[in-house]
Specification:
Structural class: mainly beta
Largest sheet: 5 strands, antiparallel
Number of helices: 2
Oligomer: single chain
C-alpha cells in the first residue's frame, strides 16, 4: 500500500449527529443519553482534530432524535455543541443547545437535606452564571459549579 489512507464513516440516512463535544465529556454525554441501550448504528469519535477546538468528540446516532430534556442535558455538559438533525441523508436542522433560565428535573441537588432528595419533588435550578456555569437550587438555595453537577 502506498499513499495516504482515509477511513470514511458511512453517512446516516436519518438520525442525529452531536458535534463539537469536549473530549472529556463525550462518555458522560453518551451515558446521560443512555446510548448503551440503543440498538441503532452509532459512532462515538474521540480526540478528532478540530480547527476550532484543537481536539473534539462527535456522537452520531442513526434513527434517534433527542428530546428537549436530553438537549438541555447536552447543553449543560457541552455548551458549544452543535446538534445536527439528519433526514434523508441531509442536515435539516442545526441546534445550538442553550439551557433555559430555570432547569427542571435534569440536575440532582448535592445537598443531602434538600427536599428533592427526600420527597417526590422535581428539582429546579436557576442559572446564576453561564460562564463559568453556576446553578442555584430553587428549594434549598445551594449553589453548585459545573464540575459538581450530577444529572438525573
Amino acid at each position: 500500500m502506498s499513499g495516504k489512507q482515509e477511513l470514511r464513516v458511512r453517512a446516516i440516512e436519518n438520525g442525529t449527529v452531536i458535534d463539537h463535544l469536549p473530549c472529556e465529556n463525550m462518555f458522560r454525554i453518551a451515558q446521560v443519553l443512555d446510548l448503551e441501550s440503543n440498538d441503532s448504528e452509532m459512532l462515538l469519535g474521540l480526540n478528532l482534530d478540530s480547527s476550532k477546538m484543537g481536539k473534539k468528540s462527535i456522537i452520531k446516532v442513526a434513527n434517534r432524535f433527542f428530546t428537549q430534556k436530553e438537549i438541555n442535558q447536552i447543553a449543560l455538559l457541552a455548551p458549544k455543541a452543535v446538534i445536527n438533525i439528519i433526514k434523508d441523508y441531509k442536515v435539516t436542522e442545526k441546534i445550538r443547545p442553550e439551557f433555559p433560565e430555570m432547569i427542571v428535573n435534569i440536575v440532582r441537588c448535592p445537598n443531602a437535606n434538600c427536599i428533592t432528595n427526600h420527597d417526590k419533588v422535581e428539582s429546579r435550578f436557576y442559572v446564576e452564571n453561564r460562564k463559568p456555569l453556576e446553578l442555584r437550587c430553587h428549594y434549598c438555595e445551594r449553589s453548585i459549579a459545573k464540575d459538581d453537577i450530577t444529572l438525573l
